[in-house]
Amino acid sequence: MSYLELTNICKNYQVGKQTFNVLKDINLQFELGEFVAIVGESGGGKTTLMNIIGGLDHDFTGTVSIAGQPLDYHHERQLDQYRREVIGYISQTYNLIGHLTVLENVMLALDMTKLSHGDRLRRAHELLANVGLTAQIKKYPQQLSGGQKQRVAIARALAGDPKILIADEPTGALDADNTADVMAMLQKIAREGRLVICVTHSQRVAGAATQIAELVNGRIKSQPVTTQNVGTTQTVASLPARPLSYWVSVMMAFKHMRHTWIWNTLIVVGTAIGLFAVMLFNGLGTGIKGYINHEMNALVDPQSIMVMHQADNAKDRDEQAAAVYDPAVAGGIAARMPVFTDSQLTALRDLKHVTNVEPGISATNATIAIGQQKYAAPELTTWTSSDPTRQLKAGHVAGDNQIVLDKSSIAQKWSATRWRQLVGRAVTVSYQTFNQKGQPVTVARVLTVAGIVDSTSEVGLNAVNYTTMQSMRSAARVSTQPTFVSVRIKSRVQNQVVVNEINHLSINGKHPFAATSIAATLDSFNTYVNIATKVLAAIAGISLIVSALMIIVTMFMSVSARMREIGILRSLGERRRDIRRLFTSEALMLGIISATLATGLSYLAERGLNHGLAKLTGGYALVQIQLGNVIAIFVIAIIIAWLAAILPARRAARANPIKALAAE
Ligand SMILES: Nc1ncnc2c1ncn2[C@@H]1O[C@H](COP(=O)(O)OP(=O)(O)OP(=O)(O)O)[C@@H](O)[C@H]1O
Q: For the chain, how many structural domains are there in total?
């Protein structure tokens, strides 16, 4: 039993309908320690035979046995392992990876061994020293001479301590001196106890071999002749191999990315702009929403709900409707508003989440006389704690027998410039309403102006306190029962629930209350802003499709450009999944870098815009990019990159190693 036995090897190539028998029933046996030269005419099938021995070709018939064990060529994992552990490969074209240094090229093969990183590094240096390249380890292949490249290839082929070294025309591109050096190395390698199979046209190389086999027209013309005795053979201890680790794949992908950085930078910038736009729109949405809520909350208290009493009958309803302010009838009789009874106030107070119920009275069509001048106040109401004091532009909230006047509809009409001077002045406030008997009566009192308020309300805000209003009304013998109440709740999140509860509250089979709350309006407004933000972000997201296409195109171009590298890696024993990982890692890295750049850009834009708009918003940050947005962008970028890499990576992984090695 020989170490390597080829039995009945036949290989055909099918070109169209024509079949070419390239290898015809090859039977050969070789021992460890031999240096075999395979010679023969061009096209005789030498490379084809080497591809079969090297475990690159599995489309043939016959058996290849190693130490008596037939190899299963249809068992991909076994074949990958065979290439990693048993075979070392050198070729006329050196097959070095251009974007890796001399040291890295050798390390690549060592990375598939079980040695520790330190031992791998030590061994790589040792192997390169053995071929006389210590000084060149940091160079890239294109910075080496042909002879030096072939030495790197030899060092790499020996990295995993292979039992068989296949050398396909190793000296084909070398001058006489380099040829002699390489030959001496191969002889030494064989003497160490390895089987060296060398395809050659050179008589000189063949002369150095211990056996010569001639392959003519697909057949072994003559059985191998032993030209020399095999030198001292020792058995080499083989290095335990393992598949390429994930980390090494990722590092390789990184090195390639660095190598093609200009092109990759363009892709990263393109993708980052798309991601940036999505992130900015989301941040802007959050900011605008926050800003509007902030502004609204400053104007009205989101924790308070305004409750009106529904008119009890049709007559009252008509009266209530007629009470809507009409400037033409300013100063007319105020409608008698439906009032809250004590038990109704208790019913409201007993509702869940309600902390306080504050009664109020409002009357329409009041007149405010300042000296000789009379001004129409569409509404005179009582100040509740939900009225924001922030709107007070002068003075303070009204105390007993005091009034707060509306700035634009009263105070500024009195004097556009001196309106603040109204504070402290006495004004006569009056309005007409109906008493219990349905007779019109006038409610009037001289009050002191406590403050001026800049109201957002259409009808302006002229307000006294509840005690003053009650006292004015009781003096005129009209009802002092509240016409509205302001209900306070614990938190604004319960707003909608409480509003619904109040509106559906049933007393004596009727729903007497109508509750309104700014928070509920705000919630629907927030929904609109959310929709608008998401739509804008989605539109910006379309650019991400372009980014994905860019990554796909780049990856496909990269696969085509790196076909040869794929072949080299496969011949070194890398599995299909290692190749797939190489390309997916590169795409994922592009995605992550793009997301990082997008985050940086967004951060700068956020700062710039917020700074620029600070005057307009009173310092409120209109762009608010949150951690969630950043995480989402990273997830999107990774998904896009991963999806974009699927097809190119699959193509790379499925490439035929022989065709890949032959790629230009
Ligand atoms: N993929 C292929 N499809 C069809 N025919 C092929 C293919 N690869 C090789 N051949 C043919 O197989 C035959 C053997 O090719 P091979 O490369 O093994 O020869 P060789 O002895 O190594 O030649 P050389 O010494 O010129 O390198 C040639 O006739 C070649 O045209």
A: 3
